Amino acid sequence: MGRIKALLSATALLTVMTVIVTWPQARYMSTRVAAHGDVFLSMWRLQWITHALSTDVRHLFDGNIFFPHTRTLAYTDATLLEGLSFNQKEVRKRKN
User: Fold this and answer.
1) pTM (two decimals)
2) Which of 18, 30, 56, 69 has the fewest Cβ atoms within 10 angstroms?
3) What is the spatial distance between Cα 60 and Cα 78, in angstroms, rounded to a whole number?
4) Are residues 49 and 82 both part of a single domain?
């Protein structure tokens, strides 16, 4: 029982710390984006990776942002790990 209480306490503490660090974004997580320089680029990268993985993974780096140029995803940090995570969430959402 003590181990479960410690785990729940640690989870609660980390949740509260995350909300504090990400405030005010934590308040509007599903309706707004944080105000920083490249909000739309970040959203585009995640959506492009999701699109490329679900259509033709061979053209993952051939983003449509500077068409007709190729390998345009390489112009910025690719955020592949975040893109894969986002892709899994989108795939689950589409199945439901």
Assistant:
1) 0.57
2) 30
3) 10
4) yes
Neighbours of 44 (CB within 10 A): 16
Q: Are 49 and 79 in contact (CB under 8 A)?
A: yes
1 and 19: one domain?
yes
What's the token pair of residue 93? 């959402």
Q: Which residues form the domain of 4?
A: 1-32
Backbone φ and ψ for 76, nearest 5 degrees, come out as -135, 175
Residues 6+ apart with CB under 8 A from 60: 49, 52, 53, 73
- Which amino acid belongs to residue 54? S
Helix (H) or strand (E) holding 78: none
**Cβ-proximal residues to 23 (8 Å cutoff; 6+ apart), any chain:** none
